Amino acid sequence: MISKSLRIGGMLIGYYRLCPRKAWWSLRGIAMEQESDAVALGRLLDESSYARSDKHLEIEAEAPDGTPLVGKIDRANLKHGVLHETKKGRSCEDAHRWQLRFYLWLLYRNGVTRADGVPFSGQLDYPLLRRTEAVFLEAEHYLELEKNVAAISSLAIQEIPPPVLTQRSFCAKCSFEELCFG
Ligand code: SF4
Predict the structure, then answer these.
(1) Residue 165 in contact with ligand 1 by CB distance below 6 A
(2) pLDDT tens figures, 89-110
(3) Where are the beta strands (DSSP E) in the chain?
(4) Considering the entire predicted model, what is its pTM?
(5) How many angstroms does the Cα of residue 21 sit away from the middle of ligand 1?
């Protein structure tokens, strides 16, 4: 049973972009140990690698269809208008980009900009790889995020999980593999 107070967050958007079935498991409150470890490692990397002046930020917003949205942002440099998301590896980099675009969208939905009116931008940080990537929210991303939120809301009431991925290469790294393939 899915809670009526479902709020869609950035990690769920990332899961959905990787594999709708992964999002479906997560919507049912299933978090495998490996996933929790990855989140904890990300937090540790985040806390040990970057400036203390940056702030964790939590933001709530509503999608155009009224769906409640929430973002827990690793670090925000408010002065320069940059949201940071820390990851350990780049194997899911497209999902990472969408997670960060989602957070930028929440700011946009709330009308939040830098002091000079310029929209916030994002930065993916890969401290173990010593790499960063700039991420921007472009006009074409708004509709895509709207569609993703609507699809996740539908998944929340869907009784059976979406099909498994046909490309099994990603599944080998997914903590839900045993649930999907036994
Ligand atoms: S094991 Fe594969 S099909 Fe199952 S949730 Fe993970 S990525 Fe999706």
Answers:
(1) yes
(2) 888 899 999 999 999 999 999 9
(3) 8-9, 55-62, 68-77, 82-86, 121-126, 131-135
(4) 0.88
(5) 6
